[in-house]
Design a protein that fits this description.
The chain has 134 residues and is an alpha/beta fold. The chain contains three helices and eight strands, in the order βαβββαβαβββ. Strands 1-4-3-2 form a four-stranded mixed beta sheet. The chain has a four-stranded mixed beta sheet with strand order 5-8-7-6, covered by helices on one side. A hairpin with a 5-residue loop joins β7 and β8 (121-127). The longest helix has 13 residues, at 82-94.
């Protein structure tokens, strides 16, 4: 079983992406940051590598997905509460992102979603596992 996960996402403008995610409260590992990529810390063992499209092409033989037109992946992250879910989405929209799905409340799970500057879809959710229907 893996002990860490690194998600790699192609971005058009690395500085704008760093500014966007900094506004949302994320930090970056300077050890893995240069003019072509940065390592955004999502959790203790979870990271997103934001990589310029030019550099990203070195890692794949396929065309890079235009995430504003096609869905390449859905990134889902938990939050501490429903309020924190809404707070993160508001920060994303205020920083230039957009809402791509309206909030969904299932009672035991609440989620809301935004797209970042490159169209990558982020689902933020709060789940009360004690309230999951059996």
């Amino acid at each position: 079983m893996a002990s860490k996960i690194f998600i790699n996402l192609a971005v058009k403008d690395l500085k704008k992406s760093i500014d966007f995610f900094t506004t949302l409260g994320f930090s970056f590992n300077p050890q893995f940051t240069d003019e072509q990529a940065t390592c955004m810390i999502l959790g203790e063992h979870i990271f997103a590598m934001l990589v310029t499209e030019q550099r990203f092409k070195d890692f794949t033989k396929k065309e890079i997905c235009n995430a504003n037109k096609n869905t390449e992946v859905l990134l889902a992250m938990d939050a501490e509460s429903k309020e924190k879910v809404d707070e993160m989405v508001k920060k994303a929209v205020d920083a230039g992102g957009s809402i791509y799905m309206e909030p969904q409340d299932h009672g035991w799970m609440y989620g809301h979603s935004f797209a970042d500057l490159d169209g990558h879809q982020w689902e933020i959710f709060y789940m009360d596992e004690s309230a999951i229907p059996k």
